[in-house]
Design a protein that fits this description.
Layout: H1 3-18, E1 23-26, E2 33-37, E3 40-44, H2 51-61, E4 75-81, E5 84-90, E6 93-94, H3 105-116, H4 131-140, H5 147-158, E7 168-170, E8 179-182, E9 185-188, E10 195-197, H6 204-211, H7 217-229, H8 241-265, H9 272-287
Antiparallel strand pairs: 1-2, 2-3, 3-5, 4-5, 6-8, 7-10, 8-9
Length: 297
């Protein structure tokens, strides 16, 4: 039996302790393992996750100030199982990836606005939000010299320093996969990157998709309008791109690095969407004045 099998068996035992049978592994990203057992899910966080930071995030997400915004854990306890940090959560119904037209963009925008309105002083002390560091880490994992990888690295080099300093409560890794429906209401999930920082990063992924032409304008404008109408302040009151431009460009680099790595791992050419992302990184290189002399071919 492999270490992974041992870990999954222990996650099943934890699941049955808090939930009920059957205890089954759910599909998720490669560095995380999720087991659902009845009404709860057990999550083994990514290898190398820092326990002290996760403990602080668990304390914050269980705080009354975030009730109804972020899913509360079944228990605040963070346990270590086979060198992996493990937490326990209520199960919810995720957004249906097969029906993108039904994605709750405006509900998500209102939840983000509510999160952003919570004063940092109202919560237990949080670490820095994980968004900027995630961009650098994703690019660093590219280990080849293909044309696409070179473009991604050049685009990343062209970006100014990404601010990782203190700020306001921020989800840190928001996208449509970070929503579930519980008792008929949408709520945010995933505390791995929750922290303080520039809240514009929470809008960076849809902004990046829109800027690349991969998100319909009416969806983007509806999302942004709902966010602002609910009191969201991350974009200010003027041109939203004054605050979104850098986070959206950085997110484009991250998304492209992830896509290029996946194509390489699967030994296949880039698909249409992945090529659009690479082309958008080319545009970032040309846009950034510091990179006007950097060749892209």
């Amino acid at each position: 039996m492999s270490d992974s099998d041992d870990l999954i068996d222990e996650l099943r035992r934890i699941g049955l302790r808090y939930g009920g049978p059957p205890a089954e592994v759910l599909p998720t990203r490669p560095d995380v393992i999720i087991v659902r057992a009845g009404s709860i899910v057990v999550k083994a966080h990514a290898p190398g996750s820092e326990k002290a930071a996760l403990v602080r995030r668990m304390e914050a997400v269980a705080h009354p100030a975030l009730r109804g915004i972020l899913l509360e854990p079944v228990t605040e306890e963070v346990v270590t199982v086979h060198d992996r940090l493990v937490t326990v959560w209520p199960a919810g119904t995720p957004v249906d990836s097969r029906d993108p037209d039904a994605a709750p963009w405006e509900a998500a925008a209102r939840l983000l606005a509510r999160l952003h309105a919570v004063p940092a002083r109202a919560l237990p002390p949080l670490p820095a939000a994980g968004g900027p560091a995630r961009v650098a880490a994703t690019v660093a994992r590219l280990d080849g010299d293909s044309a696409a990888e070179l473009v991604v690295r050049r685009a990343f080099t062209c970006l100014p320093a990404l601010d990782t300093g203190p700020g306001s409560p921020t989800h840190g890794d928001w996208h449509m996969g970070q929503l579930v429906r519980v008792q008929g209401e949408w709520i945010l999930i995933d505390v791995d990157d929750l922290g303080t920082g520039d809240q514009a990063w929470d809008l960076a992924r849809p902004a990046a998709w829109f800027a690349a032409g991969l998100l319909e304008p009416q969806v983007w404008h509806g999302f942004l309008s709902a966010y602002r109408a609910a009191g969201g302040q991350a974009t200010g009151t003027g041109d939203p791109w004054e605050r979104l431009d850098l986070p959206a460009q950085a997110m484009t680099v991250q998304l492209t690095a992830t896509a290029v790595a996946a194509a390489k791992r699967e030994d296949r050419p880039l698909d249409e969407v992945e090529q659009i992302l690479v082309d958008t990184c080319q545009k970032i290189v040309r846009f950034r004045s510091a990179c006007h002399s950097v060749p892209t071919q």
